[in-house]
Amino acid sequence: MRSPAAAFRHGIVQSLPFLVVIIPFAVLFGVVATEAGLNLAEVMGFSVLVLAGASQFTAVQLLSDNAPAIIVILSGLAVNLRMAMYSASLLPWLRGASGRHKAWVAYALIDQSYALSIQHYERHPRLSIPQRLAYFGGTAVALCVPWMIATWVGATVGQAIPDEIALDFAMPITFLAMIAPMLRTPAHLAACFVAIVLALVLAGLPSGLGLLIAAPAGMATGALVEWRTERKEARDAGIPG
């Protein structure tokens, strides 16, 4: 059985491939945020305090479009609603952790740390709480610290990067790499399909309202499909409900 120290190192090692897209993604954010008029302290405040790339890009884009503050805030929250689902998914595995440990897990919870951790926990269900926390900690260190450093690089020297070097490839590749292996149930597929279709159909709405509608609609669809699936399984098993 792995010790917590070994689990921590394992989390770091398994996170390394994501740096191929995390680093250019963060550099790109630093460039875009400074071009939008944010100073270095504000850019770093985004990456250190918010620590959520998709919502950071959403907020900066809306700020650039002079969207009302309430729309910026609501759009950022809508994009990050998935973190609530991530937390609910991790809860059974980290239920015995202390409040202090849950607090730093919540802070470091990003798409990649969640995807790696939940798959690791499911493959190794007999891990202890310290081992699970250590693995998550390894992913967080390997992913979050480079994100912050690369944001600083983008904000300070990003303007020197030639236009021919396209950094915007990082965002779609990152999400495809994370999401594709996790679409394993009808609920997952339904949520993904509805969110994508609505985001495309409503792309013309101002101030990112299409995303604000598509994200919760996809989540609601996934929850509905999951509920109906569970009811059907219960009926088939002869359980009244």
From TrEMBL:
* Organism domain of life: Bacteria
Coarsely, its chief localization is membrane
GO cellular component terms, semicolon-separated: plasma membrane
Report how it sits in the membrane.
Answer: Multi-pass membrane protein
Q: Which Pfam families does the record match to this protein? A: AzlC (PF03591)
Per the similarity annotation, which family is this? Belongs to the AzlC family.
What PANTHER family does this protein's entry cite? INNER MEMBRANE PROTEIN YGAZ (PTHR34979)
UniProt-recorded name of the protein = Branched-chain amino acid ABC transporter permease
Q: Which residues cross the membrane?
A: 12-31, 43-63, 69-94, 133-153, 165-183, 190-215
> Some GO term, biological process aspect, for this entry: which one?
L-valine transmembrane transport
**Keywords on this record?**
Cell membrane, Membrane, Transmembrane, Transmembrane helix, Transport
| Compartment(s) of residence | Cell membrane
